[in-house]
Amino acid sequence: MSEQSEELKKRTMKFALDICTLIRTLPGDEPGPTVKRQLTKSSTSTAANYRAACRARSHAEFTSKMGLVAEEADENVFWLEYIAGANLTKAKNLPVLETEGRELLQIFSRSVGTARLNERQQ
Q1: Tens-digit pLDDT profile for residues 16-72
Q2: Domains, the chain, ranges and CATH?
Q3: What is the DSSP letter of 1?
Q4: What is the pLDDT of residues 76-112, one digit of tens each?
Q5: 91 conformational bin, left if phi > 0, alpha if psi -120 to 50, beta if neither
Q6: pTM score, two decimals?
Q7: What is the rounded CA–CA span in Å between residue 4 and residue 93?
Q8: Distances (CA, A) of 65 to 17, 41, 122
Q9: Which of 25, 8, 9 has its CA nearest to residue 80?
Q10: Going by C-beta distance under 8 Å and a sequence separation of 6 or more, which residues neighbour residue 100?
Q11: Are 35 and 26 in contact (CB under 8 A)?
């Protein structure tokens, strides 16, 4: 695996762990529990599916998994923006997580685009 892939594995794992810390600051009444569940699922899915994409057995499988990673990364951004918009927490790291979520989304979206282009050219 490339150094860049290993770095992204670490980065997505850190993001999921940081989200775990953030969700502990969300309220116990609705919409807190729903947001907690959805954000936990999307952040851990981003990390887990990226790892799976790195182990893909074919280019088609890689492209498919990366599409899933980008979709989950987009969901992360949605929920973080929702938390900020609904003022559900005073956590100081929320803006940092929003920035990281957007950066990861950009990286994975570009990767999907490149993978699809490469697939068409084969």
Answers
A1: 999 999 999 999 999 999 999 999 999 999 999 999 999 999 999 999 999 999 999
A2: 3-121 (1.20.1440.60)
A3: -
A4: 999 999 999 999 999 999 999 999 999 999 999 999 9
A5: beta
A6: 0.94
A7: 25
A8: 21, 16, 19
A9: 25
A10: 11, 15, 18
A11: yes
